Predict the 3D structure of the following.
Amino acid sequence: MLERDDQGRKVAQRAPWLLLGPGLLFLAVFFFFPLYTLGQMALSSRPSRFANPVFSWEWSNFNNAFSQYGSQFVRSFLYAALTTLLALVIAYPLAYVIAFRGGRFKNLLLGLVIVPFFTNFLIRTLAWKTILGDQGTVVGVLRDIGILGANDTLLRTPFAVIGGLTYNFLPFMVLPLYVALEKIDPRLIDAARDLYSNTWRAFRTIVFPMSLPGVFAGSLLVFIPAAGDFVNAYYLGNAQTSMIGNVVQNQFLVQSNYPVAAALSFVFMAIVMVVVITYARILGTEDLA
Amino acid sequence: MTDHEALRRAEAVRMARQAMSRRGFLSRSAALFGGAVVAPAVLAACGSSSGSKGESGSGGDKSVAISNWTGYMSDQSKKDFTKDTGIKLTYTEDVNDNNEYFAKIRPNLSRGKSIGRDGFVLTDWMANRMINDVKWVSKFDAAAFPNKKNLRAALQHPGFDPDRLYSAPWASGVAGIAYNRASVGKEMKTMDDFFAASGTKTVLSEMRDTIGLMMLADGKDITKPTYADADPSFTRLEKALSDGTLSGTNGNEYVNDLAAGNLAAAFAWSGDVAQIAKDNPDIKFLVPESGATLWSDNFMIPFTSDKADLASEFVNFFYDPKNAAVLTAEIQYISPVDGVADELTKMGGDAAKLVDNPLVVPTDEFLARLSIFGVLDAKAEERFDKRFAEVTGAG
């Protein structure tokens, strides 16, 4: 009896590790190993331009990444923050309506949010070039009603870049918000009403706090890829709107400077990590919840 | 009140748990996103090997795998090639940008591994890098390439390959200025006209074409480019891009903007403009009075291919004036092969009309206004590339 119990306990002890195994293996192969090679590359130097970089504790790559590309880093995170904010403002009412007022059309409405994104990412971005083009309807109307001057344009401005980012990453905000809102028991709102709470107060004290996990998840899913994106800045921006992704692309593909590209990626990761942890701390406190 | 408080607290705890698990997942995924720039070693493992290793040389099923730019081949030519030579052709249009293609083949070639191709086509300066810097190309099989004698005299002895042992021009074109006469409101003649024109204007992201055109406007010799000569052009470009005179840089996608009327003027490639002008006669191509750049794309054989003989036979086929004329009629770029004009005339119809177009069959007078951007050694090239990246906002 005792032996069997022991055995059972051993299995029970091992079970979590066995279950974690595939995940850990995945992380080892697709995260830790690439991270290791990336780190190695970031600390390498190039004997000549096209020779393969050699590992040499070349910390100056990090100095270069920091000192030369500060403005692109600032711009990347500023654009990403604005994108996240815009996406939240657009996605929240949308997710709210689908979750609480969607009724039997919920799935259809969700589908309508996602289906446009079956189109290729690049094609969608290039479509904005046409929509925001100088000869396009949007610019024409804005000029007619006086919001844009006769020579003002939308394409190749920060506006176009942030707009493109917001559009491209919107579903990543809508879906987690929808999941969070959908889980809320509508009877809680009824209860709030019974306690003489008006709609706004019910939203502020019940719905919004309970949707915060969705806000948190959506913000990260939008912020992180938006900060690292280079496609939108490349096609919709100009020389003054380039982001860190554009620098990495140029260092990697044009200048063949793998070490600096790797160092830039590391610095980028570190900043994202700090931002995410800070954000988690702020949103994770019970006061806010 | 206490019930409300308790409810809130219970909900907060539940939420915190949810948030925790989600956060744990998210921070791991966040970390993964950051790690997405994978080292070349891993990239190399992803390369395709659609090439046909093993069915080497003559005997058995003969086949070659070729990489080329889009718009550089005609279906007729492909069929003719296989019919005439009995060699099966795997033709892929996967060269979109010299630097990009270089980055793609570098992991394998730098380790001496096959890239699954027996030939690719790259621009002069990249051909120089391939032949003289990294040495990743092999010589043609002279016996399989007798038509090399048809190469136009002007192209026979470039600095980067004096005897054309490693490279054969596939096609040439001109980088100049395209403009929309309706937007600009007048005929343009000079580089200053370009900078003075109102409306959206862009330059090419291909450094040699953009800086080359601007250096020519400064009266510099681009056949022997030095950084000192280029510096004023970089400064002028930097100023124009930051004060809004120029809206930015464009790759080949400028074509769409030009056709849609979003561009008043742009640095552009001749063949593209000819095609747009067919639909919109307001789009003009200008070789500024100061001159324009002439570039050639060159066929080369990667040293990892064991089919240099078949690849040589491939390029040999297109150096037959008859076959070259069929190709030229389709792609409308300047052919490197002597006697193409006569063959085009013989073909009659639209093909015969191309003979009068200096952008397809250039006259000596026209050629005299064009210059080829000279060879930059690896150090100088690095300096040019770095400065260009700075100026265009990417570095």
About this structure: Chain A touches chain B through 70 residues (CB under 8 Å). Residues 285-289 of chain A have pLDDT under 50 and may be disordered.
